[in-house]
Amino acid sequence: MAVVVGFIPTEVGFKALAAAREEAEQRGGPLIVVNVLRAGVTDDPRHANDQQLEIARDQLRRATVRVEFRQETTEDDIADILLDVVEKEKAQLLVLGVRRQQDLARHLLGLTVQKLLLSADSEVLVV
């Protein structure tokens, strides 16, 4: 069954990528890596550039399942893009990397993560 990972090019994002690979291999794959770009925003550290995508590809090169990379652009909610991919791919699992910050887990994990946890038609693994 398919595993989708919402990828951001940070330390926690690469940890989520590793966890997603492991889950996809256990479940028989494929693994779909999605990096969402905000339209009109140029300096967002969550946007993966070509070099960061190549590092991610290298990390997954020896995966025993098919791996697909996607960069999606939205003017709307990042969560909606990930939920759409999960639905279209009939994914069994959505993997998210969450930065560990204080301040009550940054007000209960942030709106995007909350929406994904409450709305995904799949299991959700938070790394």
TrEMBL record:
The lineage of its organism: Bacteria, Bacillati, Actinomycetota, Actinomycetes, Micrococcales. It comes from Brachybacterium faecium (strain ATCC 43885 / DSM 4810 / JCM 11609 / LMG 19847 / NBRC 14762 / NCIMB 9860 / 6-10). This is Universal stress family protein. Residues 3-127 form the UspA domain. InterPro entries: Rossmann-like_a/b/a_fold (IPR014729), UspA (IPR006016). It comes from the Bacteria. Pfam families: Usp.
